[in-house]
Amino acid sequence: MKRLFYLLVLLGLFDDKARAQLSWQTFNVPGAASTWIDGIDGEKIVGSFLLPNQSSTTGFLYNRQTAVWTYLTAPGYDWTLPLAISGNTIVGSAGSNTSYLRNGFSFQNSSGWSFLNSPQHGSDLEAYGIDGSNIVGGTSSGWSYIYDGTGWTHFNSPFGDGSAAEGISGNTIVGTYYNNSNYLRGGFIKNDNNWTLLDVPGAVETLPRDVDGNLIIGQFRETNSGPTRSFLYNGGSLIYLDAPTAESTYAYGVDGETIVGSYNDSSGASHGFILTVPEPSALSLLAIGLGGLAMMRRRRS
C-alpha cells in the first residue's frame, strides 16, 4: 500500500535584512515585448520571447558565461516553448496557432529536433522537465509520464483526477494534480512509490514546477482572483518569493543557488528574472518561525 504524507509547513516571514540577501536580476531578450525564462542548468538558461506586433513565441538558449544566444524554432510549428535543460539537451513543447494540439520535444545542437510520441497517449503531450536522460511531462488526457530515451512509464497522482509531472531530480519528481469537479489544483512530490502532498498553507492553488536535490520551487495563489506568487521549499523551510515591483511572480526553474522565472509588471508585460539565494545551508537564516509537521494517511500540468 502506498503511503501519503500530508505536509504542513509554517510560513517563513522575511524581515528587511533577510530580503536583502535575495539578489533579483531582470532579464529581457533584446528587442522583445515580453520574456519568459523557464529552465536553467549551470550557466545556460532557456525560455521564450514575444516580439512587438507578433503573436507567436520563439524559444531561446542563452549562455550567461559566453553571452551567446541561440534562437529556437521547432520546424513545422507556429510557436516554441523550451521549458527545461539538462546538459546539452533542451525539452519543451511546440504547437500551432490554429489547434490546441501540442507536441513535446527534445533538442540538441548536435542532433537537432526529436518529437515525443508515447505509445499509450500519442504526440499530444508536453515535456516539462529533464534530469540527465529522464524527461517528465504530462499528456492532454491528464497522465504524467517519465521517458528515459527508450521506454515510457505513465502514472497518475493519487490525489486528483489528473496530473502532470513538472520537474525531476534523481528519483524525485514534483508536479501538479487537478480535480475535474472543482478545478482545484495542488502539488505533489513523488519519490519512487512514496507520495507527498505539497500545498502552501492557506493557498487555493499550489503548483510545484521544478526540483533540484531537496530544493523545490513553484507558484501559488492565495485567492482565486489574486496574483500569483512563488515559493522555495527545502524540506523544512518555506520561503515566499515576490519579484520587486511585480504584479505576479512565476518561478519555473532551480539549479543550486539560482532560481529563474518571470514576472508581470503593472503594464502587463512579462520579464524574465534570475534570482540568487543563499547557499541551502543558510536558507534557515532567511525565515522566522520555521517548522514542519507531517501526518501520515492512505490515499497530475
Account of the protein in words:
- The structure is a single chain.
- This protein has 301 residues and is mostly beta strands.
- The protein has one domain: TolB, C-terminal domain (Neuraminidase).
- The protein has one helix spanning 16-20, and strands at 4-9, 11-12, 23-27, 34-41, 44-50, 58-63, 68-72, 79-86, 89-95, 102-108, 112-115, 125-131, 134-139, 144-147, 152-155, 162-169, 172-178, 185-191, 194-198, 205-212, 215-221, 228-233, 238-241, 248-255, 258-264, 270-276, 292-297.
- The strands form six sheets. A six-stranded mixed beta sheet has the order 16-17-18-19-1-27, with no helix packed on it.
- A hairpin with a 2-residue loop joins strand 8 (79-86) and strand 9 (89-95).
- The longest helix is centred in the N-terminal third of the chain and has 5 residues, at 16-20.
- The two termini are 26 Å apart.
| CATH architectural name | 6 Propeller
Low-confidence stretches: 1-20, 287-301
* Spatial sequence of strands, sheet with the most strands: 16-17-18-19-1-27
**What is the CATH T-level topology?**
Neuraminidase
Taking all residues together, what is the mean pLDDT? 86
Estimate nothing, just give the exact number of structural domains. 1
